[in-house]
Amino acid sequence: GENVEQHPSTLSVQEGDSAVIKCTYSDSASNYFPWYKQELGKGPQLIIDIRSNVGEKKDQRIAVTLNKTAKHFSLHITETQPEDSAVYFCAGGLSKLTFGTGTRLQVTL
Amino acid sequence: GAVVSQHPSWVICKSGTSVKIECRSLDFQATTMFWYRQFPKQSLMLMATSNEGSKATYEQGVEKDKFLINHASLTLSTLTVTSAHPEDSSFYICSAQAGASGSYEQYFGPGTRLTVT
Q1: Closest approach of chain A CAs to the CA of B93, in angstroms?
Q2: Is the separation of the CB atoms in A44 and B44 below 8 Å?
Q3: Which residues of chain B have a CB within 8 Å of the CB of A89?
Q4: Is the model's pLDDT at A18 over the cut of 90?
Q5: Is the pLDDT of residue B87 over 60?
């Protein structure tokens, strides 16, 4: 089955700086890679996703890149704000998703 | 759009009793729903996949007789934790997938925190 690894486990950045979270996956058949933001005590919220036929996707301050050959994908958040503080999960698969271990992002003033 | 609700948001039950959790897709029809369990400061672990009108598919290590899943309609799935024990205490989250051709997005509910005393 699919195995998704995520790094770093914690990330602290100053407001306005960029944050990058990286994930790798093992199953070359996987073709869907979403990113979720989870705030304390809440369910995960889909923030951006990418399909395997696309190398990069951007939505305002958030971008995701995918390298199918190397089997890794990354989340980039620019101009971070305090409200970006949360746990971020990457996932990979198709209809069934395998989640990474999560990254706790702390944006400090 | 793509709103998923769960009920209850939290529940406390005594050991040995059963608890039912509902998951509803409010503004779309979900051909597939997923049930996850999340322990504190850990990732989401898929428990089972349910398709409307058919039996759920359970992940390895998940007891299907303990975690009963019913997907009776395109907008409702239920998870029943039978004979609950303290080790079943966790955050249970459902997600729903519209299932349209080429659509893989999963939208998550707000979760249900179960505490078994």
Answers
A1: 7
A2: yes
A3: 43-44
A4: yes
A5: yes
